[in-house]
Design brief:
The protein is an alpha/beta fold. The chain has helices spanning 15-23, 65-82, 98-109, 127-133, 152-159; strands spanning 4-8, 29-30, 40-47, 50-57, 85-91, 114-119, 142-143. Bound molecules: guanosine-5'-diphosphate and magnesium ion (MG). This is GTPase Der.
Length: 163
C-alpha cells in the first residue's frame, strides 16, 4: 500500500525544490491532458524506506494577476482531490501572507489531510515565520529546508503512518 502526497502552496515557497529532492531523477509520469502538463507534475518519491507518489503544483508562476487566484484555486483543488495527504508549504522567511491564508482556506473547505511545512527554515531568520505558521490552525509546522535537506526526518515521521 502506498499513498499520494500533493505539495501545495503559493508560488516561490519551495514546492518544486522539495519535489525534486524527493523524486531525484525518477520523474516518471506527467499528466498528458492538454494544457495541464506544466501545471501538475507527478513523480515517484523516496524518503528513507518510504515509497510514495508526489504531485507538484506548478504553472502558477506565469499566470497573470487577474487569473492567478482562480487558477491557484482550481489547480490546488485538483491536486488535493488526487492526493491522500497534502503538504501545505509556506515560506518561513516571508512569514504567513494573505495568499497563504487563501490556500489554508481551500484546504480547510476540502477537509484535506494536511501536513504543514514552514520551508526556508534554515537559520534563525526563519524563527518568527515558523511561529506565525502555528496561527494557520493547521497543526504544528514541520521546520523544513528543502534546499539544504533539513527537516526531512520530521517529514518522514509525519508520512510514515500513511505507508
Ligand atoms: P515553488 O514556486 O513553490 O515551486 O518554489 P521553488 O522550488 O521554485 O523555489 C523558489 C525559490 O526558493 C528558489 O530560488 C529556491 O532556490 C528557493 N528555495 C527553495 N527551498 C529553499 C530553502 O529551503 N531555503 C532557501 N533559503 N531557499 C529555498
Ligand atoms: Mg514550482
Amino acid at each position: 500500500m502506498s499513498f499520494t502526497l500533493a505539495i501545495v502552496g503559493r508560488p516561490n515557497v519551495g514546492k518544486s525544490t522539495l519535489f525534486n529532492r524527493l523524486v531525484g531523477k525518477r520523474l516518471a509520469l506527467v499528466d498528458d491532458q492538454p494544457g495541464v502538463t506544466r501545471d501538475l507534475r507527478e513523480g515517484e518519491a523516496r524518503l528513507g524506506d518510504l515509497r510514495f507518489t508526489v504531485i507538484d503544483t506548478a504553472g502558477l508562476e506565469e499566470a497573470t494577476d487577474d487569473s492567478l487566484q482562480g487558477r491557484m484555486r482550481r489547480l490546488t483543488e485538483r491536486a488535493v482531490d488526487m492526493a491522500d495527504v497534502c503538504l501545505f508549504m509556506i515560506d518561513a522567511r516571508a512569514g504567513v501572507t494573505p495568499s497563504d491564508e487563501v490556500f489554508a482556506n481551500i484546504l480547510r473547505k476540502r477537509s484535506a489531510h494536511v501536513i504543514l511545512a514552514a520551508n526556508k527554515a534554515e537559520g534563525a531568520a526563519a524563527d518568527a515565520g515558523v511561529f506565525e505558521a502555528y496561527g494557520l490552525g493547521l497543526g504544528e509546522p514541520i521546520r523544513l529546508s528543502a534546499e539544504h535537506g533539513e527537516g526531512l526526518n520530521e517529514l518522514y515521521a509525519a508520512l510514515m503512518p500513511l505507508a
